[in-house]
Structure formats: structure tokens, C-alpha cells
TrEMBL record, chain A:
Protein topology in the membrane: Peripheral membrane protein
Summary of subunit composition and partner proteins: NDH-1 is composed of 14 different subunits. Subunits NuoA, H, J, K, L, M, N constitute the membrane sector of the complex.
Keywords, in A-Z order: 4Fe-4S, Cell membrane, Iron, Iron-sulfur, Membrane, Metal-binding, NAD, Quinone, Repeat, Translocase, Ubiquinone
Binding-site residues, [4Fe-4S] cluster 2: 80, 117, 120, 123
Organism: Thalassobacterium sedimentorum
Pfam families given in the database record: Fer4_7
Entry protein name: NADH-quinone oxidoreductase subunit I
EC number: 7.1.1.-
Cofactor note: Binds 2 [4Fe-4S] clusters per subunit.
Residues that hold [4Fe-4S] cluster 1 according to the record: 70, 73, 76, 127
Function: NDH-1 shuttles electrons from NADH, via FMN and iron-sulfur (Fe-S) centers, to quinones in the respiratory chain. The immediate electron acceptor for the enzyme in this species is believed to be ubiquinone. Couples the redox reaction to proton translocation (for every two electrons transferred, four hydrogen ions are translocated across the cytoplasmic membrane), and thus conserves the redox energy in a proton gradient.
Family affiliation: Belongs to the complex I 23 kDa subunit family.
Necessary cofactors: [4Fe-4S] cluster
Swiss-Prot/TrEMBL catalytic activity: a quinone + NADH + 5 H(+)(in) = a quinol + NAD(+) + 4 H(+)(out)
Automatic annotation (TrEMBL), chain B:
Enzyme class, first EC level, given as a word: translocase
Name recorded for this polypeptide: NADH-quinone oxidoreductase subunit H
EC number, as in UniProt: 7.1.1.-
Organism annotation: Thalassobacterium sedimentorum
Main location: membrane
Residue ranges of the TM segments: 14-33, 96-117, 137-158, 225-245, 282-302, 314-337, 357-376
Role, per record: NDH-1 shuttles electrons from NADH, via FMN and iron-sulfur (Fe-S) centers, to quinones in the respiratory chain. The immediate electron acceptor for the enzyme in this species is believed to be ubiquinone. Couples the redox reaction to proton translocation (for every two electrons transferred, four hydrogen ions are translocated across the cytoplasmic membrane), and thus conserves the redox energy in a proton gradient. This subunit may bind ubiquinone.
Catalytic function, reaction form: a quinone + NADH + 5 H(+)(in) = a quinol + NAD(+) + 4 H(+)(out)
InterPro entries: NADH_UbQ_OxRdtase_su1/FPO, NADH_UbQ_OxRdtase_su1_CS
Subcellular location per the Swiss-Prot or TrEMBL entry: Cell membrane; Membrane
Family (UniProt): Belongs to the complex I subunit 1 family.
Organism lineage: Bacteria, Pseudomonadati, Verrucomicrobiota, Opitutia, Puniceicoccales
């Protein structure tokens, strides 16, 4: 067992007994802290810097060509613990986007119910197309339940374009054209 | 015209009184703002900086500065108190419950009648105080009436029929009565020195010396050379400590004790009645600051041993008032500054400080000064 060392306490001097020098020191301390610059962030006008790996509101992103990345595989819908994601798969309109005809599928509807979402990031983790990302939006509010359901259009608005260099489907198409699919 | 001339002596005092009350209430609301702002600066916060009044608040640059300093905040605070739902708990003693805030505020406002805040030189070349009522016994009136404020607190605590307010009221009354003694005793030496003692002339006849008695104006006039705090530091310290206790400010916030008694005596009060208590607290602080400045910090005299650089005219009067106000503002700042510097006392510590230290010191100080004055008079006559 460690030995306790009893420190000798010096008796208080007369000045210390009156507390007055201590009060003056305290006044100095508070005064200097008053003159220091504040650290307050004026919130709605000033925003904190959000780190890159922050898990904010889930969003859908487009590839560098501005095309839809999601292929409606519904993995995120299956993995979502609170069942916040609802996807209606659909075909790609080959007339409107002939260069994406070989992708076969795209979501017709893509709803994320933000009242259910728990920001766990499993959807981002599971997505084989890197189409869904939890980005830096940290405050989300609405006046009704309907407003809190992000539809496809809203999700792409929030998500924007991610400058990655994968071009998976372009490579697949050129490989097919060269006659060595798969 | 004749009627106007005849009624003027009756109307003017009312006009002056209304003016003074408006200025004083304005000061009260702005010291609430000062409290909030200084508190936040000391704690590294920003404080109220969002309230904006239309038109004035939208002047370019200036409007933003005023909003940032929270200059419109008192308006919002006051309106909030006015428009909140007025809840009266079912268990209170109605009559006294309504009476208490009024009794708390009235004495604080009454004392300002005898508080001089500047000086002017009248047609005969005699310096006169700027004051609503120039009474010889000004200090006695202030001591007497301001301590009536404790009735407001006691009544509030008692009529609330609830244990926390009751404890707050009991503590407040005990504390105020204890510190009143030390306060009064700490004041006496100041007046003994300020009122010049009589002396015997060359033929052995007594010439009456004291022209002022307990008049606050006399004390200020006697400080044209040396401020009282410089040669009566002990009296000043005793009075200041007692003042903090009398105004129920931290470290002596026994009446409120928000850390252990919820809100103390005003726990059961809401909306405008609480607002009245709030204003009364700040009115006491302003009055206390004013009295401390008059008694110890030279009132409107410029600096120790430096003659007033302003003249005798209206300009000089205005500057004397401004200088007095500057000192009062410093004291209000000091009150707030102290609040965030010292931790609060426990109730028994407050009592032992008051009775075992302050009171004996004040008595000793009085006796010492009496002996010195007696020796001085005997030796110099």
C-alpha cells in the first residue's frame, strides 16, 4: 500500500486571512478573461467546418458525367435497419439515354424517410455503385411528415456530383463493343 | 399667464420628479443589460446580440453595432414581462403576495429623492447641489427608507406559503438587519470628518463649524481635495461589503440563493411581478453605487487634488453630472465584476462575517476616528 504523504500546510499570513489580496487576484483573473476574444460561433450565419467523413443526411450522387449512378439494386433498402429507404425499380428510358441503355435498371422512385433514418451509414457502406453518401448536412427540419420524406429529385439535389474516376459502366460498354464482355 | 406663473412652483417639482424617475428606470433596465453583457464577456460568451428594433436598428453600420451590443434588448425584456401569462399559485396569500413587489420597489425609488447627482453655481455664486430635495439628513433618510425594502422580500417569502421562498425571506431579513449595523457604523466616521468641527476663536468663543450635518452634498464638497476612500480605506471597505450584503448581490445572495433555494423569495412570482422585484434589485444597486461614489469616490469632483477642469456655468454642471454618472457606471460594473469573481458564502458564514468581523471592526473604526478627531481638535484649537 502506498504511503500517504501528509503535506505541511503553512499557516495563513495576516494578509491571506483578510482574503483581500486573493480577491484582487480573482478580480484580475475575471477581468483578463473578459478581455479575451470569444470563441462563440454566430450559428445560423457562421457554420462549423464539417469533416469529410461526417455522417449527415444520406444523399444520392451522380457520376462525373452527370449521370445517375444508382442501378436500383435495392441493397440499401434491404440493409437499412429502420427501413427508411423505399425504392421502386424501373427500366432506363433507352430513347432518352441511349448511352446508358446497357445499365438496364434505374430507380423510378427513391424515397428516404428522414423521420426513420438513424444516420448509421450502412446504405453508403453496402452500395456497390457508390451512389449513396451520407454528406455534411446536419440540420434537417420540416413542417409536416410528408416534407421529411426525401424523394429522388430532392436526394439528387442534396447529393450533387461526386468527382470520382471509376466510370465502371463506360468501361463495361467499351469492353462489350470490343467483343469481350465479362 | 398669471395662472401659469402661480402654478409653476407646483408643476416644476413634478416635472423634475418624473424626469428623474424616467432616467432612473432607464438606468435600471440598462443595468440589467450590462449585467447580462458583462456576465457573458467574463464567461467568454457573447450575450444578447439579436434584438433589433425596426428603423433605428436598420441604420447602416450603427444599427448593427447597436444590435450587437444588445441595446434594444431591455425593450424586449420589459415587453416579455408585460405580455407573459400571469400565473398566481393557488396557495399564496393574495393580498400580501400582490403587495410585496410594490413594497420592494417603492423604497428603492423613494431614496433617489435625496441623492445629489451634480452641482451648479447659483446667482449668488454659491455652489448648490442638483437634487430633488436638498435635505440636511439625506443619508439618514436613505438608510431609513432603503432598509424598508426588506419588507418586500419578507412579505414575498411569507405570503408565498412555500418553503423555499420562506427560507429565502428569513435569510434575507436576518442578513439585512445584521449588515445594516455595520453599514451605519462605517458611515459615521465619514460624516464626522466631513462636517468640519467647531473651533474656538482667539477670544475663546465657540464658532459653529458644521454646516452640513448628515447631508450628502456636504460630504462631496469636503472631498474636493482628497477622496474619502484614500484616507478612510477601512470605512470604505466596511461600507462596500455591507453594501453588497444590503443589495443582496453575490457573494451575499442569501435572499435569492438560486443554487439552493430555487429562486429564494421570488420563486412563486412570475411575469411583471417578478419584473418589479428585478427592477428593485437593480434600483438598489444603482442607489448603492451612487451613495458609495458620493461618500467615498468624491462624487462629481474630478480627481483627488485636481480641481474640476470644467467651469461654473451650465456646461460645468452638465459635465459634473456626467462625471458622477461615469463613476456610478464604474461601480455598477464593479458589482457585476465581483459577482463572477467570488463564490457565494454559506448562510452561517455570512452571519459570522457580519457579526464577528464587520461589526467589531466598524465599532473599532468609529472609536479610533473619534479619538483622532478629539485629539486633533484639542491640539489645533
Amino acid at each position: 500500500m502506498a504511503k500517504t504523504k501528509v503535506l505541511e500546510r503553512k499557516p495563513l499570513s495576516f494578509a491571506e486571512k483578510t482574503f483581500l489580496p486573493q480577491i484582487v487576484t480573482g478580480l484580475k483573473t475575471t477581468f483578463t478573461s473578459m478581455l479575451q476574444k470569444g470563441v462563440t460561433l454566430q450559428y445560423p450565419e457562421e457554420r462549423p467546418t464539417i469533416p469529410d467523413n461526417y455522417r449527415g443526411v444520406p444523399t444520392l450522387v451522380k457520376d462525373p458525367n452527370g449521370r445517375e449512378k444508382c442501378v436500383s439494386c435495392q441493397l440499401c433498402e434491404f440493409v437499412c435497419p429502420p427501413k427508411a429507404i423505399r425504392i421502386t425499380p424501373g427500366a432506363i428510358d433507352t430513347d432518352a439515354e441511349p448511352e446508358r441503355a446497357h445499365v438496364e435498371k434505374a430507380p423510378q422512385e427513391f424515397d428516404i424517410n428522414m423521420l426513420r433514418c438513424i444516420y448509421c451509414g450502412l446504405c453508403q457502406e453496402v452500395c456497390p455503385e457508390e451512389a449513396i453518401f451520407l454528406q455534411d448536412i446536419f440540420s434537417l427540419s420540416g413542417y409536416s411528415r410528408e416534407e421529411m420524406i426525401n424523394n429522388k429529385q430532392k436526394l439528387y439535389e442534396l447529393g450533387g456530383t461526386l468527382p470520382d474516376k471509376h466510370f465502371k459502366w463506360d468501361k463495361k460498354k467499351s469492353a462489350e463493343a470490343a467483343g469481350n464482355a465479362h | 399667464m398669471e395662472f401659469l406663473d402661480a402654478s409653476l412652483p407646483y408643476i416644476m417639482p413634478i416635472v423634475y420628479a418624473v424626469l428623474m424617475i424616467s432616467v432612473f428606470m432607464g438606468l435600471c433596465s440598462y443595468s440589467v443589460l450590462a449585467e447580462r453583457k458583462v456576465s457573458s464577456w467574463i464567461q467568454g460568451r457573447v450575450g444578447p446580440n439579436r434584438t433589433r428594433v425596426p428603423l433605428v436598428g436598420h441604420i447602416p453600420i450603427l444599427g448593427n453595432v447597436m444590435t450587437g451590443l444588445g441595446l434594444f434588448q431591455p425593450v424586449a425584456d420589459g415587453l416579455k414581462f408585460l405580455f407573459k401569462e400571469e400565473i398566481v399559485p393557488g396557495h399564496v396569500n393574495k393580498g400580501y403576495y400582490y403587495l410585496a413587489p410594490i413594497i420592494a420597489l417603492a423604497p428603492a425609488l423613494t431614496t433617489m429623492v435625496v441623492l445629489p447627482f451634480g452641482r451648479y453655481v447659483d446667482a449668488d455664486g454659491i455652489t448648490q447641489p442638483l437634487v430633488l430635495a436638498n435635505v440636511d439628513l439625506g443619508m439618514l433618510i436613505i438608510l431609513g427608507i432603503s432598509s424598508l425594502g426588506v419588507y418586500g422580500i419578507v412579505l414575498a417569502g411569507w405570503s408565498s406559503n412555500s418553503k423555499y421562498p420562506f427560507l429565502g425571506g428569513v435569510r434575507a431579513s436576518a442578513q439585512m438587519i445584521s449588515y445594516e449595523l455595520a453599514m451605519g457604523l462605517a458611515l459615521l466616521p465619514v460624516f464626522m470628518w466631513a462636517a468640519s468641527p467647531g473651533y474656538y476663536d482667539s477670544e475663546g468663543l465657540f464658532v459653529e463649524g458644521s454646516r452640513y450635518g448628515m447631508s450628502l452634498f456636504g460630504v462631496v464638497q469636503s472631498q474636493q481635495a482628497a477622496w474619502t476612500i484614500l484616507w478612510q480605506p477601512l470605512s470604505a471597505l466596511l461600507f462596500l461589503v455591507a453594501l453588497f450584503a444590503e443589495t443582496n448581490r453575490l457573494p451575499f445572495d442569501m435572499a435569492e440563493s438560486e443554487t439552493d433555494l430555487v429562486g429564494g423569495f421570488h420563486t412563486e412570482y412570475g411575469c411583471f411581478k417578478f419584473g418589479l422585484f428585478f427592477v428593485a434589485e437593480y434600483a438598489h444597486i444603482i442607489m448603492g453605487s451612487g451613495i458609495f461614489v458620493l461618500l467615498f469616490l468624491g462624487g462629481w469632483n474630478f480627481l483627488p487634488w485636481v480641481a474640476d477642469p470644467w467651469g461654473d456655468g451650465i456646461f460645468g454642471s452638465v459635465l459634473s453630472v456626467a462625471w458622477f454618472m461615469a463613476k456610478v457606471f464604474f461601480m455598477i460594473f464593479f458589482f457585476i465584476w465581483m459577482r463572477w469573481t467570488l463564490p457565494r458564502f454559506r448562510y452561517d458564514q455570512v452571519m459570522s462575517l457580519g457579526w464577528k468581523i464587520l461589526l467589531p471592526l466598524a465599532v473599532g473604526n468609529l472609536v479610533l476616528n473619534t479619538i483622532i478627531i478629539a485629539l486633533y481638535d484639542t491640539l489645533t484649537r
